[in-house]
Specification:
This protein is an alpha/beta fold. Helix content is 34%, strand content 23%. The strands form 2 sheets. It has a 7-stranded mixed sheet with strand order 1-5-6-4-7-8-9, with helices on both faces. Strands 2-3 form a two-stranded antiparallel sheet.
Length: 199
Amino acid sequence: MPAKYLITLADVAQLPDLFKRGFLNGYAQPRVALVGRSNVGKSSLLNALTQERVARVSATPGKTRAIHFFLWDRTQKILADLPGYGFAKVAKGEMRDWTRLMDGYFGADDRLEGVLMLFDSRHGPTDQDLEALEFFGSKGVPIQIIMTKFDQLKNQSERARRKKEVEAALKPYDIGSEHINWVSVKDQRSLEFLRKRLE
């Protein structure tokens, strides 16, 4: 099986039981976290990368409110599907819960190798994306930027323009072009390039 679901972390109270001596519920493989706005196509990318329908794709933004872990055989890594940020219809209390869950997870998982931050190629990085980038950047874990839905840019000139805009927006955060990946779930070449980077 290319990938399989392992476990869900929905509450910080679960952390002490899930993470012990570098293990995640008994699994020792290193972890890679995926995070992005709630409508950025995170679940679709996860399914396309692993070539397995492991993550549920919802038409309603903000459905993922917990961390779902998947073991990906090809890379021998565990993918952590983090809750999306930036969905509009959410109470302040839920945002506090989101922050508490993220802080707790990053503090508990000492085998977390890196974070894949997903931005929409057509619009991002938005102000909320940059706020999230600062938040996750403060955790001391290497970050790769994934620009999703690259196929929806109309032509080569628009793609070139967007690349320049994105690189300029991320330069103040010390993120160069080598850490920016332009990906589409419909483009197998971009997916394979990202798979090899993760390996």
